[in-house]
Design brief:
Elements lengths: L11 H21 L3 H12 L4 H7 L9 H37 L16 H15 L3 E2 L5 E3 H4 L19 E3 L2 E3 L5 H9 L4 E10 L11 E11 L4 H16 L5 E8 L2 E10 L16 E10 L1 H7 L7 E8 H9 L6 H4 L2 H4 L3
Bound molecules: adenosine-5'-[phenylalaninyl-phosphate].
């Protein structure tokens, strides 16, 4: 707003009066400003580059020399007062904000729960099994998922064209390299590197051409065990399994061996545990049998010892391979193995 100040004022008194009035109007506008935006508009109107005070001060040089100091002083005082009031009001308006937030904050609303991560049931089962076998004196070793055909088959007494190859059929990378179809090749790798006595467990991922169903998956996990020494017997195998299964599934768990066949063990057995869902009474999950298959086991075949340069006349040993995914299912009450691989947090979050 242009003011009739500069050239129009002829007396000091008139100009001082004008400054006082401008100051009064500014202070009123500051008090009436309800928001920071209103306040900013007032600041621009009075103290801005083209504001009212700028115009007032522009008139001072035209005054007679003896009047300039008094008017200049009055103008500076007025501008200072406006600035101070602007700052004070700004603080007032700023301070009012948190108060409004405080009033609308309901402390009874439940907080947002942070999402905690946890281990996958297969990982948990693997860690627990490793821990149990470690306490029984087994050392943990690892082998590669990509394996030589020789270690997966030939050295385990499964020569080319042997029908047992079908049970362990897998994915070939090239002619003599494949994705291991069980953890048993780690037996071969370990025995080739060490002399008896030895007691090892080898957990890891394995691959098969199996079609997925409630208890099979084409990628799953096993934990292999191997104990070799003089005078190891089937009783050692049975006692080790009994102790480990009771530690993992609970003290009432029963273990039984059914005669079976694996080319790398003789005799061989499928090992069942009493059904964890019905406690052995028979239910839908165990097909009414009261038992569920968990692992394959046996006494190491002399041909395997020969393949790794151990003396089969001197040493005996037991070995087994346990399905970790199945162990996790029976332990955590999951009736379909596929659920373990869906990664649905609604299921995993309950375990
Ligand atoms: C073997 O893999 C033998 N290597 C085990 C063994 C080791 C025997 C040492 C003797 C000495 P089998 O194919 O039965 O055996 O598999 C062992 C366990 O792996 C089964 O009992 C089961 O718990 C699990 N398993 C087998 N196939 C699958 C699959 N497709 N999905 C999930 N778990 C499986």
């Amino acid at each position: 707003m242009p003011l009739p100040c500069a050239a129009g004022f002829t007396s000091r008194a008139a100009m001082i009066e004008e400054i006082k009035q401008a100051k009064a109007r500014a202070l009123r506008a500051i008090q009436q400003a309800a928001t920071a935006d209103d306040l900013e508009k007032v600041r621009i109107q009075y103290l801005g580059r083209k504001g009212i005070f700028k115009d007032l001060l522009a008139g001072i040089p035209q005054l007679p020399a003896d009047q300039k100091p008094a008017v200049g002083k009055e103008a500076n005082l007025a501008r200072k007062a406006v600035e101070e009031n602007l700052n004070a009001r700004k603080n007032q308006l700023g301070a009012a904000k948190p108060k409004a937030v405080k009033e609308t904050f309901d402390i009874t609303i439940p907080g947002t729960r942070p999402q905690y991560g946890r281990l996958h049931p297969i990982t948990r089962a693997a860690y627990e099994l490793i821990d149990i076998f470690a306490r029984l004196g087994f050392e943990v070793v690892y082998g590669p998922e990509m394996e030589l055909e020789r270690n997966n088959f030939d050295a385990l007494n499964i020569p080319q064209e042997h029908p047992a190859r079908d049970d362990f059929d897998t994915f070939f990378i090239q002619d003599d390299i494949l994705l291991r179809s069980h953890t048993s090749p780690v037996q071969i790798r370990t025995m080739q590197q060490r002399k008896p006595p030895l007691r090892i467990v080898a957990p890891g991922k394995v691959f098969r051409r199996d079609t997925p169903d409630a208890s099979h998956y084409p990628v799953f996990h096993q934990i292999e065990a191997l104990a070799v020494d003089e005078n190891i017997t089937l009783a050692d195998l049975k006692a080790t399994l009994d102790t480990a299964m009771k530690a993992f599934f609970g003290p009432d768990t029963q273990t039984r061996m059914r005669p079976s066949f694996f080319p790398f063990t003789e005799p061989s057995a499928e090992v069942d545990i009493s059904c964890t869902f019905c406690g052995g009474k028979g239910c839908k999950t165990c097909g009414g049998k009261g038992w569920t298959e968990l692992l394959g086991a046996g006494m190491v075949d002399p041909n395997v010892f020969k393949a790794v340069g151990y003396d089969p006349e001197k040493y005996t040993g037991f070995a087994f391979g346990l399905g970790i995914d199945r162990a996790a299912m029976y332990r955590f009450g999951i009736t379909d193995i596929r659920l373990l691989f869906d990664n649905d947090l609604r299921l995993l979050g309950q375990l």
